Amino acid sequence: MNVSSGPDRRVMTRNDPGVKRYFDSKYKHMVVKVLPGDHYVSGEPSEMIVTVLGSCVSACIRDPETGIGGMNHFMLPEGQAGDWKVSNAIMRYGNHAMEILINEIIRLGCPRERLEIKVFGGGNVISTGGNVGHRNSDFVEEYLANEGFKPVAVDLRGDCARRIHYYPATGKVDRLLMRRAADRQVFTKETSYQRAITPDDEGGDIELFD
Q1: What is the DSSP-derived secondary structure letter of residue 76?
Q2: Which of these, 82, 114, 79, lies nearest to 97 by C-alpha position?
Q3: Which range is least confidently modeled, 36-40, 119-123, 170-174?
Q4: How many domains does the chain have?
Q5: CA angle 127, 130, 135 (to 5 degrees)
Q6: Exactly one of 56, 60, 110, 160 is catalytic; which is it?
Q7: In terms of Cα–Cα distance, which of 145, 141, 167, 144 is closest to 155?
Q8: In a domain, 188, yes or no
Q9: What range does the domain containing 26 cover?
């Protein structure tokens, strides 16, 4: 399944050369990695979407009837309207990341009222992180409430990094808490990405593994 997008969206497709996609023999699925600022939509039963979250938040959204769904990965709560013109940057903001992912799934024929939503991340993994993880968590909960969505699963805040495995076809999520030694690496990757793209600015079926 291919998903098209406009020039200013960091949406990944199966044929996108930037997609990190490989077969995982343990999980018996094709794996697609979603990095900070990206999102991916799939209608393939054989695909699993994976990301690692520190202070960032990911929403896993799908239509249970069609099995079409996707995941985003955002770093900051909200951006201004002008950021829509900044390619490779808009998806770092939660308000744009949520709207784009939801609209992409709806555009593929999935009614808004059928959408199943699960949200993860927002950990304050480093004390010097400015509480951005909990701000991201506050944002996504408020955004969903304002839009009339009731998530079926929420795993936010805390002080640990998370690895998320999402199966859009079934809605299953595996959430793995990462060891503290890995937390700083996740935070470093997130902040490095943020600096690179902003040189001038600042429930449901879930298996939990500790």
Answers
A1: B
A2: 79
A3: 36-40
A4: 1
A5: 115
A6: 56
A7: 141
A8: no
A9: 11-183+197-209
